[in-house]
Amino acid sequence: MIPDLSISSVITTSVCPVRFFLSQNSRNSESPRYTVAKQISYHLGKESDTEEIWDEISLIQKDNNPGLREFFDECIRICHTNTGWRRYSDSDVNVHSSKYHIHGIVDKLFDDEPFFSITRASQAPLSGIYSSDRLRIAAYSVCLEEMLTAEIEGGCIEYIPSGMIRFCRVEPIDKRRFLRALHETRRIKNGQLPRRPMRPPCEKCPEQWRCGPDEGIRLSDLL
Predict the structure, then answer these.
(1) What is the pLDDT of residues 55-86, one digit of tens each?
(2) How many CB atoms lie within 10 A of CB 182?
(3) Which long-range contacts (CB under 8 A, 24 or more apart) does 148-151 make?
(4) Which DSSP state fits 63?
């Protein structure tokens, strides 16, 4: 039986297979900034009290750093300048593909097209959509098409710090990149060594201390 893979693991592999390999046994917790983005997103498109949203964030994230409130206030301010937020029908929806053996959680579902959106805690790029977000949309579209037996052209990305929504139409190249990352993730899970990308994004990688750009994977990480 083929084990399921999380969509987040496939996305990590698409960024850097070595990073996924090294982080397999790490415990990943939700970042405070992502909590802020998620809770703000839930309240967009309806009347809401700012302090009520902040209380929700404080309940979820016990270790609030001093700059988190500033980030929250700025996100609230800029999101309120956009009146295009839609009311969602469901949130944090578990999705799954039996065909590709992947699963994940979609942030929001809607009753009309585009049928889903994901929430990001990063600024929107100057134009277009980040490649990793395109891959997320492609993977969720695969799951929803199978679950809903309907064609899903794409989904939306809510870049909360920018107060911006961008639609991502899934293109053939997105599907090819998804399949390539999926096959590489499964290859690594089956015990094979990861392939180092040509230009690994080492600067912001949390596993950088275990994997220098020149040294490769350390023997101790394989034992």
Answers:
(1) 999 999 877 677 899 999 999 999 999 888 99
(2) 22
(3) 148/115
(4) S
Give pTM, 2 decimals: 0.89
By residue range, what is the domain housing residue 11? Answer: 5-24+87-190+198-210
Rounded Cα distance between 135 and 62, Å, is 31
Q: Which residue has the tokens 């809401």?
A: 48
How many angstroms separate the CA atoms of 126 and 48, rounded? 29
Q: Which two tokens stand for residue 39?
A: 């809770």
Compute CA distances 78 → 39, 53, 127, 133, whole Å: 15, 15, 18, 21
Pairwise CA distance, residues 144 & 147, whole Å:
5
Query: Between 7-15 and 131-148, two packed helices, what is the crossing angle to 10 degrees?
Result: 150
Q: What is the CATH number of the domain that holds 124?
A: 3.90.320.10
> Could you give the CA distance from residue 189 to residue 38 in angstroms, rounded to a whole number?
30
Place of tokens 């929504």: 165
Specify the number of domains making up the chain: 1
